[in-house]
UniProtKB/TrEMBL annotation:
Residues 48-318 form the Glycoside hydrolase family 29 N-terminal domain. Keywords: Glycosidase, Hydrolase, Signal. This is alpha-L-fucosidase. Its EC number is 3.2.1.51. Belongs to the glycosyl hydrolase 29 family. InterPro entries: CalX-like_sf (IPR038081), Galactose-bd-like_sf (IPR008979), GH (IPR017853), Glyco_hydro_29 (IPR000933), Glyco_hydro_29_N (IPR057739). It is an enzyme of class 3 (hydrolase). Gene3D superfamilies: Galactose-binding domain-like, Glycosidases. Pfam families: Alpha_L_fucos.
Length: 570
């Protein structure tokens, strides 16, 4: 296409591996380890390996279920902050070799690698840099610790028995470090060089300017705008979550914001927790994949070593809903008109079903207006837009309208489009849509404009107004407790048990984390309940948040946000 050779990419461009992760969209996280057997989220490194003994571990089940429910890659926690390692490492004896499981001859990483190779599932590893068990984790033995971590990286990444047929797509270097942990300076240059040498295509998640960054919260939701670029000099272990959540419009390095969240409130399996509702998962999907960035969804195996039946069922429902969303593109083949188009890149390319064909304008006169004609009145509520990220992210602001009897009416608006933007509006019957790009960093290059009717489970609906927190947001000083009031407005004639669970926001990243679960028993006729929630205690002048989610037995949920502030000590 002639336009291609005339064009230069704009800003930082994604690598092949980053583009592939964009296309993959869905990754699964597997948190399974000594914590599973202690029913805890963070270990202190003193756990007894004898407790690790899954009775029915079946990695084929993990990978098969994830493959069948649309996940394209799986990141396995090989070592969490407690330092316990899921393969027989020669660099430490705090491993499964010291456990009774398979008489100390087992290797979870080898088993999961075999399953991944069998089902052709891409694999990544999480290897926690903070290691509460290692005696070397001390500033005075920093060099030796850095070497220890390096050896483990090499031991895993260069072993052909591990990975999807020996290949890894991601290495997760979690930036979390507990309060009071030694402040070691990690040898990222050596670690990154070793990864590049053993696995040249692997992307790295870290607090540095590597290919993947944290999205700034642990609830799987990217911001709008979402720029897939950052400025390396803004990154550190203490980067403000909002910077990570939005990226940087002036960023110089391409950085994929990975939206991570657990299907349950905790990362490890606890019998007291339930999977998130389908509506919740779909909302997360719209705020991650639907904002143009991969969703990394954690599904924690049970003590037996299996994905829990309730989680499997939820994953299947999720997969069905996502598949149903894309089943009929009402705009496929529809006519599109643009107020400006390059002769080789007409607007019709947006609806021709070819992923690589794109529209670009002939002039750089803003705003750019495009109109889509569905040919007849159709019922829809979802619009998908895509930019050609291979040529750099460009759109900074846009709005969408639909034509009604009395003229154009607002449907949705947003800042960035990026790899893929899903806009869920109120269901409407209309034939014509109008897209106006009001702000761009460079001439826009779009590849897709699709229109769908979302399945019922995804439809826009106001949050269960029948179950209300007194406030959408509470503020509390670090370490104090906050009184939260919940009201049910319907079903007053029946007694009901409503479960309240804390969910990670930014407030747990790098601090202490323990879930709190409360069962509130409403008697018949009772409308209000109050509960005191202890907040996290942490040091340093900063603000962190977490969420409280109330679930009714029928799955309806409500949420409130708790902002914890600490200004006291520093
Ligand atoms: C955090 C950790 O502290 C959590 O335990 C979990 O592993 C999550 C994915 O990252 O930083």
């Amino acid at each position: 296409m002639k336009a291609n050779s005339e064009m230069a990419g704009f800003g930082p461009l994604p690598s092949k591996a980053q583009l592939r992760y964009h296309e993959d969209e869905l990754a699964a996280f597997i948190h399974f380890g000594i914590n599973t057997f202690y029913d805890q989220e963070w270990g202190n490194g003193q756990e007894d390996p004898q407790r690790f003994n899954p009775s029915a571990l079946d990695t084929d089940q993990w990978i098969r279920v994830l493959k069948e429910t649309g996940f394209k890659r799986v990141i396995v926690v090989v070592k969490h902050h407690d330092g316990f390692v899921l393969y027989p490492s020669r660099w430490t004896d705090h491993t499964i070799a010291a456990s009774p499981w398979r008489d100390g001859k087992g290797d979870v990483l080898a088993e999961v690698s075999k399953s991944a190779s069998k089902y052709d599932m891409d694999l990544g590893i999480y290897l926690s840099p903070w290691d509460a068990h290692s005696p070397l984790y001390h500033v005075e033995t920093q060099e030796a610790y850095n070497h220890y971590y390096l050896q483990q990286l090499k031991e895993i990444l260069a072993n052909p028995l591990y990975g999807n047929k020996g290949k890894f797509v991601e290495v997760w270097m979690d930036g979390a470090r507990g309060e009071g942990a030694q402040k070691l300076v990690y040898d990222y240059p050596a670690w990154l060089a070793a990864i590049a040498e053993a696995q040249s295509d692997a992307l790295v998640f870290s607090t540095e300017a590597t290919g993947i960054r944290w999205i700034g919260n642990e609830n799987g939701r990217a911001g709008d705008p979402l720029w897939q670029k950052v400025n390396p000099n803004q990154l550190s272990e203490h980067t403000a979550p909002a910077y990570l959540n939005h990226g940087d419009p002036d960023g110089t390095v391409y950085s994929l914001g990975e939206a991570d969240v657990s299907i349950r409130s905790g990362w490890f399996y606890h019998t007291s927790q339930r999977p998130k509702s389908l509506a919740d998962l779909l909302d997360i999907y719209l705020h991650s994949v639907g904002r143009g960035t991969p969703l990394l969804l954690n599904v924690p195996p049970t003590e037996e070593g299996l994905l829990a039946a309730a989680d499997v069922e939820r994953l299947q429902e999720f997969h069905e809903a996502v598949t149903a969303l894309y089943a009929a593109d009402l705009a496929l083949g529809a006519e599109v008109w643009a107020d400006s188009e390059h002769p080789d890149c007409p607007a019709g390319h947006l609806t021709d079903g070819r992923p690589a064909a794109f529209w670009m304008p002939a002039s750089d006169q803003q705003p750019f207006t495009l109109e889509l004609d569905l040919g007849q009145d159709c019922l829809f509520d979802t619009v998908e837009l895509r930019e050609d990220m291979a040529q750099g992210q460009r759109v900074a602001s846009f709005y969408l309208e639909v034509e009604k009897e009395r003229g154009w009416a607002a449907f949705a608006a947003g800042k960035t489009i990026g790899y893929k933007r899903l806009l869920l509006g109120d269901a409407v019957w209309a034939r014509r849509l109008r897209l106006v790009l009001t702000d761009v960093q460079a001439p826009p290059i779009l590849t897709k404009w699709s229109v769908y009717k979302a399945p019922q489970s995804m439809e826009k609906r106001s949050c269960s107004a029948a179950l209300l927190f007194e406030r959408p947001t509470y503020h509390v000083a670090s370490g104090q407790s906050v009184q939260v009031r919940l009201q049910r407005q319907d079903g007053l004639t029946i007694p009901e048990s409503i479960r309240l669970v804390t969910e990670p926001g930014t407030g747990v990243h790098g601090v202490a984390y323990q879930d709190q679960v409360f069962d509130l028993h409403f008697a018949a006729g009772e409308a209000f309940k109050e509960v005191g929630i202890a907040s996290l205690a942490f040091s340093g002048e900063r603000s962190l948040d977490f969420y409280l989610c109330a679930s009714r037995p029928d799955g309806r949920q409500s949420r409130t946000k708790i902002i914890v502030r600490n200004t006291a000590d520093e």
